[in-house]
């Protein structure tokens, strides 16, 4: 059984079709890249998997370990191990990163029937993970993403991913707004989290990211559908010929 | 018990003061209305509306500080008496008015002149009114039995007693309609010239801007040579159609011992654009109050203004923006420059009604005090009854920034020039909101005139 | 965020109508006859064995009150109060003169236990020293002057305070024991003629706290009053007077609760603070009077006059309030900045839910040179409530070099409530620098989704964001209060998330 199984998914916003029949199987241990032009529906796909409100599911199924994901609340999905790294992480004034991480982690653990972390245990874990990602301690004391640079915000997303240990990571344009050095740091963080138990879906507009995070499978999405799937060489083909060829296939 | 003999304002747990005895002024007003009745245009329904409006006024009385909206401008205390209605201007008055009207004329504008509250066609550019625009005098409209039904609209009031008084007493004004889809090229300028002394005038105009129509209205108040101690009460009722666009600029100058009370009631349709600017720069007591209701979705409002205050001028600008429907945007910028013993009052209320989701409203009000006797009162207000909104206001007051002044002086500017430059920049923040370059220049020239007098 | 979790848990266990402090103590009480007349005033004064000057003071206030009308300018709406249908004095019937806690009616002690106010003093009074390591040494001591209905039933820690020279006692006692101090300062900040409710209070106040901190003394502990309204149809009229003499410091905590009742109860207190040269007073309030039930029935009318006078140069008064209770709140803790270089501060969290109406804010009246003030107000409206900030900042002609900074933020939860901001900003000289900013918004859906995607429930996410929103003010509270306040905030917002 695939970890994530999407069957003929149709999604709309205000009666306009955004996703128009997507099929996708993702197994544990795999890293999929979804590429496509702006408006192709690739970010919407990640939002729908995570349960962002405001979308209308007009058809199809999304199964996670065989369970109907679409029927779950977003926080239930998070507790089941679905993690979305946001393209634009929000800032939450007055709530320190540490407090936020603890509240979220313990909520997930509780939902899974696990023991909540005590404060010292939790702090120890956060420090370890933050250290491995070169995240300075003072960033943890600041309000969530408040005054963070683009790179810091994305590193904060990776920190959460490392801490929550999800089994499915959706990385929505994780490369946007990053310079090459920040991109390298973020990519190495992601690579360190690859494991046989964990699947990742990397959504990007540019091939650049895939030089640093090498995918097992590449999908090309356009106008609400996956038009072509292949190995990592597909990304190179895309760069050479652009997305236009896939538009025609519609 | 120690007694505080002189208790500064605001010490008590009450923003209000003790009840004031009804001023003699109000009794006098009753006489003025009785005396003027025969001279006021309109009979039948119009006369009934007037009588009703006067009743409303009589019950509330002259606005005073126990009325929250008039807290800082207590007309009962400030106006000793309501003066008798001004007589019709004579030939000599028209000659003086012509000179003043010319001085304030906006470039290329179609001028419509009211002298002492009476429309003066001989001073107006009636012949230059563009096709698709209909201009009539208020007197004509109120006296025309065929337009009787329109009277209720033209004589609209609110709960404000100054507006009711105006509806009761209005002698003349302009009724302008712009047809649907018509883009008026030249600005239409209404010029109010005061020529009398120790008299009061009541004018009222009505503007109806059709669907998808575009127009610019300039309203100027100016005293003629020799005019003094008069009281002007003006009202503008405007309806802005769907997808229409209106620029409305108002510049008020008055004799140094004169009173100017102007009210605007504006209702705006859907996806329209309204660009308001008001400037008060001289007189003794001035109150400008604008009530703008956004009644159609997707409308954008910009409402800016300046109070330029010197001598003993008390200038009050009060703007209420009422978001009645969803998806509208309003931006307000207000600046006050206060010199000598002047006092500037700014009240800006943003109302968001329960239905008005996705409202985006901001207001900033800043006051610059140039003298130790100057006073700035600021009351920005938010009244929010819908949750999905972004609303904010900001208000500051203070003196010119010493560091900036020094920087400019170190670069070689004289103190006066350095001040002038900073004041211009300060006022400029409000003026730059005017979309038409032509009108922006017109307002800039008016502010320059005020600034030059500072030298 | 452990506190948040705990709160949410608690909220789950109670339903909207279950006001945590809504129990009634069954004790005999000694009431004045119903209604208000000169005789009522004389009855109260006689009960307190007051000197003649005090009775005169009360009677003057009463006669003044007869000429006054209720204020109507606040954005609150309630049926007319029948002032003749209230009891103006209710005291628990004492067994004998109370000198220590163990002599107090055990029912009353139980009440305080349920309230969870610091009762470590009970043990201390009984001579039971805490075992080593049992008590967190970092926890500060709090002296409690508990007001039960209208009478201060016990004042603890008196001895230790006495050593420092601090006078902390019921004001009824102070009138007898320190008449010179009371006579000099009572009504000097809030005169008997100030406003309808303050004047009423002056006529009929039954008790309250009195604090005097001598020159140069830093009060060795936080002083605290816990107010409770118990008796039916009882107006509670406390009078608090705090005097910080030159160079002294005192921090005062006030907490309020009331039992759950269907009828509305009136609370009209007056608090006067006097800070002389270089003195500092910090006054913190957590108010969770019964707000009425989910249909808007019952609840406290909280019409309070609180004012501090920075009388001396370089003095400082700081108000911090967390207002979550009462059906109606009408309250403007203010500072008169009379002394040169004095400073006033106002930090406020006002939360309204259900049918609550809040009209609260402050006045910063700058009279002295180089005075400064700061206002941070956080309003949260939920349910069908109306929440208004009303504030005045004014600098007088001679108050040169004054500064004020004001930030008022409102958060709306749900589309049936209202949040309003009404500042009055008056600069009467050019060297006054005022800055005011205000925002109103709802919790962003993106922020909520972000939190929920990380595993928090909708309620937890709202709780988290709200606690972040008010953090700046919570930090101004003494530690013990901050924890309690944080819990209260989440409880108050229970049921607000759809």
Report helical residue fraction of chain A: 25-40%
Name of the level-1 CATH class of chain A: Alpha Beta
The low-confidence parts of chain A are none
What is the string of helix and strand elements of chain A? Answer: EEEHEEHEEHHHEHEHEHEEHH
Helix content of chain B: 10-25%
Please tell me the overall pLDDT of chain B: 89
End-to-end separation of chain B: 52 Å
* Main sheet specs of chain B: 10 strands, mixed
Oligomer: heterotrimer
Question: What does the main sheet of chain A amount to?
Answer: 6 strands, mixed
What is the alpha-carbon Rg of chain B in Å? 22 Å
Neighbour order of strands in the largest sheet of chain A:
6-9-10-3-11-12
For the record, give the distance between the C-alpha atoms at the N and C termini of chain A, rounded to a whole number. Answer: 30 Å
Give, in spatial order, the strands making up the sheet with the most strands of chain B: 2-1-5-7-9-11-13-15-17-19
Radius of gyration of chain A: 18 Å
Overview of the structural elements:
The complex is a heterotrimer of chains A (250), B (455) and C (498). Chain A is α/β, with parallel strands linked by helices. Chain A has helices at 42-50, 74-80, 97-111, 119-132, 137-141, 150-164, 180-192, 208-212, 233-241, 244-248; strands at residues 4-13, 16-26, 31-35, 56-64, 67-68, 82-85, 92-96, 143-144, 168-172, 199-204, 217-222, 225-230. Chain A is 39% helix and 28% strand. Chain A has a six-stranded mixed β-sheet with strand order 6-9-10-3-11-12, sandwiched between helices. Chain A has a four-stranded antiparallel β-sheet with strand order 2-1-4-5, covered by helices on one side. A two-stranded antiparallel ribbon of chain A has the order 7-8. In chain A, strand 1 and strand 2 (16-26) form a beta hairpin. The model of chain A has no long low-confidence stretch (mean pLDDT 89). Chain B has a domain at 86-400. In chain B, strand 1 (110-115) and strand 2 (118-119) form a beta hairpin. In chain B, 56% of the residues are buried. Mean pLDDT of chain B is 89; it is low at 1-9 and 15-22. Chain C has 498 residues and is of the alpha/beta class. In chain C, the strands form three sheets. In chain C, strands 5, 6, 8, 10, 11, 13, 15, 16, 18, 20 and 22 form an eleven-stranded mixed β-sheet that branches. Chain C has a ten-stranded mixed β-sheet with strand order 4-3-7-9-12-14-17-19-21-23. A two-stranded antiparallel ribbon of chain C has the order 1-2. In chain C, helix 2 runs antiparallel to helix 3 and helix 11 packs antiparallel against helix 12 (479-492).
């Amino acid at each position: 059984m695939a970890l994530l199984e999407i069957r003929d998914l149709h999604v709309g916003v205000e009666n306009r079709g955004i996703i128009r029949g997507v099929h996708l199987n993702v197994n544990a241990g795999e890293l999929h890249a979804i590429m496509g032009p702006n408006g192709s529906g690739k970010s919407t796909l990640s939002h729908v998997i995570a349960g962002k409100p405001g979308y209308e599911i007009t058809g199809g199924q999304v199964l996670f370990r065989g369970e109907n994901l679409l029927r779950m609340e977003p926080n239930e999905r998070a507790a089941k191990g679905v993690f979305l790294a946001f393209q634009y992480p929000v800032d939450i004034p007055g709530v320190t990163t540490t407090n936020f991480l603890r509240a979220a982690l313990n909520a997930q653990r509780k939902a899974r029937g696990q023991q909540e972390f005590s404060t010292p245990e939790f702090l120890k874990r956060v420090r370890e993970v933050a250290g491995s990602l070169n995240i300075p301690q003072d960033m943890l004391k600041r309000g969530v993403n408040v005054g963070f640079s683009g790179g810091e915000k994305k590193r904060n997303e990776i920190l959460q991913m490392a801490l929550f240990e999800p089994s499915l990571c959706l990385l929505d344009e994780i490369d946007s707004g990053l310079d090459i050095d920040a991109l390298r740091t973020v990519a190495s963080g992601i690579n360190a989290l690859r494991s046989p138990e964990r699947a990742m879906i990397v959504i990007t507009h540019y091939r650049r990211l895939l030089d640093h995070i090498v995918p097992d499978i590449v999908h090309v999405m356009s106008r609400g559908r996956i038009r072509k799937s292949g190995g990592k060489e597909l990304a190179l083909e895309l760069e050479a010929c652009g997305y236009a060829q896939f538009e025609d296939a519609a | 018990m120690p007694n505080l003999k002189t208790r500064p304002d605001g010490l008590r747990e009450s923003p209000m003061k003790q009840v004031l005895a009804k001023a003699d002024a109000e009794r006098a007003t009753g006489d003025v209305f009785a005396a003027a009745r025969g001279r006021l245009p309109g009979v039948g329904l119009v006369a009934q509306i007037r009588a009703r409006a006067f009743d409303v006024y009589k019950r509330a009385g002259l606005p005073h500080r126990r009325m929250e909206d008039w807290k800082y401008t207590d007309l009962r205390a400030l106006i000793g008496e309501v003066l008798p209605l001004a007589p019709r201007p004579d030939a000599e008055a028209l000659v003086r008015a012509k000179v003043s009207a010319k001085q304030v004329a906006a470039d290329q504008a179609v001028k419509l002149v009211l002298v002492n509250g009476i429309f003066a066609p001989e001073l107006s550019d009636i012949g230059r009114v563009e096709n698709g625009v209909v201009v009539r005098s208020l007197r004509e409209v109120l006296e025309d039995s065929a337009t009787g039904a329109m009277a209720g609209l033209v004589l609209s009031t609110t709960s404000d007693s100054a507006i009711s008084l105006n509806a009761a007493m209005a002698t003349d004004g302009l009724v302008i309609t712009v047809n649907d889809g018509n883009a008026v090229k030249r600005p239409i300028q209404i010029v109010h010239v005061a020529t009398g002394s120790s008299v009061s005038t009541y004018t009222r105009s009505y503007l109806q801007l059709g669907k998808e129509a575009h127009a610019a209205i300039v309203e100027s108040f100016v005293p003629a040579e020799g005019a003094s101690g008069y009281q002007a009460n003006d009202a503008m009722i405007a309806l802005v159609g769907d997808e229409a666009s209106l620029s409305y600029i108002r510049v008020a100058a008055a004799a140094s011992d004169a009173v100017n009370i102007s009210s605007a009631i504006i209702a705006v349709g859907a996806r329209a654009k309204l660009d308001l600017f008001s400037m008060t720069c001289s007189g003794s007591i001035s109150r400008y109050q604008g009530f703008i209701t956004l009644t159609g979705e997707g409308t954008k409002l910009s409402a800016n203004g300046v109070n330029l205050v010197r001598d003993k001028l008390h200038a009050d600008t009060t703007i209420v923006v009422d978001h009645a429907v969803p998806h509208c945007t309003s931006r307000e910028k207000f600046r006050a420059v206060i010199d000598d013993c002047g006092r500037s009052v700014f009240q800006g209320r943003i109302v968001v009604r329960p239905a008005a989701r996705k409202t985006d409203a901001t207001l900033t009000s800043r006051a610059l005090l140039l003298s130790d006797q100057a006073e700035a009162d600021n009351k920005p207000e938010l009244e929010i009854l819908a949750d999905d909104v972004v609303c904010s206001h900001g208000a500051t007051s203070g003196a010119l920034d010493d560091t900036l002044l020094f920087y400019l002086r170190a670069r070689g500017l004289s103190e006066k020039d350095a001040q002038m430059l900073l004041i211009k920049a300060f006022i400029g923040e409000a003026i730059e909101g005017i979309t038409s370059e032509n009108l922006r220049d017109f307002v800039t020239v008016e502010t320059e005139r005020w600034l030059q007098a500072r030298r | 965020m452990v506190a948040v979790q705990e709160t949410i848990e608690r909220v789950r266990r109670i339903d909207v109508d279950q006001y945590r402090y809504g129990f009634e103590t069954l004790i005999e009480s000694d009431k004045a006859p119903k209604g208000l007349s000169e005789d009522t005033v004389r009855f109260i004064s006689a009960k307190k064995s007051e000197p003649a000057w005090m009775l005169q003071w009360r009677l003057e206030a009463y006669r003044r009150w007869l000429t006054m009308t209720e204020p109507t300018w606040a954005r609150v709406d309630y049926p007319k109060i029948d002032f003749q249908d209230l009891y103006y004095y209710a005291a628990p019937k004492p067994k004998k003169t109370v000198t220590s806690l163990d002599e107090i009616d055990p029912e009353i002690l139980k009440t305080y236990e349920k309230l969870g106010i610091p009762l470590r003093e009970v043990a201390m009074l009984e001579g039971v020293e805490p075992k080593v390591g049992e008590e967190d040494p970092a926890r500060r001591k709090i002296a409690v002057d508990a007001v039960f209905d209208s009478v201060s039933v016990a004042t603890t820690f008196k001895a230790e305070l006495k050593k420092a020279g601090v006078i902390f006692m019921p004001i009824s006692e102070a009138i007898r024991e320190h008449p010179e101090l009371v006579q000099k300062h009572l009504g000097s900040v809030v005169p008997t003629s100030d406003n309808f409710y303050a004047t009423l209070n002056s006529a009929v106040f039954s008790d309250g706290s009195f604090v005097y901190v001598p020159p140069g003394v830093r009060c060795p502990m936080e002083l605290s009053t816990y107010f409770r309204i118990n008796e039916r149809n009882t107006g509670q009229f406390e009078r608090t007077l705090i005097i910080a003499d030159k160079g002294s410091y005192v921090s005062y905590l006030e907490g309020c609760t009331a039992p759950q009742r269907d009828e509305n109860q009136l609370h009209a207190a007056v608090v006067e603070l006097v800070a002389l040269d270089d003195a500092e007073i910090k006054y913190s309030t957590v108010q969770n009077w019964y707000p009425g039930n989910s249909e808007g029935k019952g609840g406290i009318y909280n019409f309070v006059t609180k004012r501090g006078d920075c009388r001396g140069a370089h003095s400082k008064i700081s108000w911090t309030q967390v207002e979550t209770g009462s059906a109606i709140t009408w309250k403007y803790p203010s500072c008169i900045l009379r002394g040169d270089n004095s400073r006033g501060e106002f930090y406020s969290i006002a939360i309204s839910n259900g049918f609550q109406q809040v009209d609260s804010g402050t006045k910063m009246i700058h009279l002295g040179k180089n005075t400064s003030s700061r206002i941070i107000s956080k309003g949260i409206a939920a349910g069908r409530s109306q929440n208004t900030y009303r504030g005045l900042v004014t600098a007088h002609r001679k108050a040169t070099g004054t500064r004020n900074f004001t930030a008022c933020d409102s958060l709306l939860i749900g589309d049936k409530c209202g949040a309003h901001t009404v500042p009055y900003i008056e600069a009467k000289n050019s060297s006054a620098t005022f800055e005011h900013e205000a925002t109103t918004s709802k919790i962003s859906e993106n922020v909520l989704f972000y939190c929920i995607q990380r595993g928090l429930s909708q309620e937890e996410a709202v709780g988290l964001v709200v606690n972040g929103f008010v953090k700046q003010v919570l930090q101004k509270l003494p530690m013990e209060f901050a924890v309690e306040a944080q819990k209260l905030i989440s409880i108050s917002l229970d049921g607000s998330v759809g």
